[in-house]
Amino acid sequence: MVRDESQPLGYLTFAENRPGYIPLGRIVKAKDFTAVTTAENIIQQAQDQAEIIKKQAQLEFEAQKAAGYQAGLALAQEEKVMYLMALETEFSQRIESFEHKLKVIFPQALDYLMQEVGELKVLQQCVAKSISNIVHEKSIVIK
């Protein structure tokens, strides 16, 4: 028997079958040899099974990660829509408030002009100038 270097310690192969030949390694009983090989097979099976479980866990992790990312995108889109709706509502309310103020202020301004100016031509010039300021300079001046 000689020790096979590719095998772990305790494994022997019979190279020569001569009486008086001294083995180079230890001699292992068949019962112990079977127990060792069975244990090694069990360990290998456990390692293979652990590798399969590890790969399955990685795949599941990636799937859950992708699902979480998609859920996050959907939630962000929903929040964006809600924000834009609130912004549109606020803008609409401000426009309505501005329109209401114009409805109140404009007649008062015309009454004031009519009382102060009294002449139609001067009133027309003031209104034309105000409209020109609104259109060209984007401003309203009320005194």
Which terms summarize this structure?
143 residues, mainly alpha, two-stranded antiparallel ribbon
How is this fold's topology laid out?
Blueprint: E1 2-3, E2 12-13, H1 30-116, H2 120-137
Strand order of the largest sheet: 1-2
Alpha-carbon distance between the termini? 118 Å
Tell me the strand percentage band. under 5%
Rounded radius of gyration (Å): 47 Å
Q: How would the global form be characterised?
A: rod-shaped
> What multimeric state do the chains show?
single chain
Please state the average pLDDT score: 78
Helical content stands at: over 70%
Return residue spans where pLDDT drops below 50 for at least 5 consecutive residues. Answer: none
Helical/strand content category: mainly alpha
- Let me know the largest β-sheet: 2 strands, antiparallel
Helix and strand pattern: EEHH
Q: Count of helical segments?
A: 2
Strands, total number: 2
Can you summarize this structure?
By secondary structure, this protein is mainly alpha-helical.
Walkthrough of the structure:
This protein has 143 residues and is mostly helical. Helix content is 73%, strand content 3%. It is built from 2 helices and 2 strands, in the order ββαα. Strand 1 (2-3) and strand 2 (12-13) form a beta hairpin.
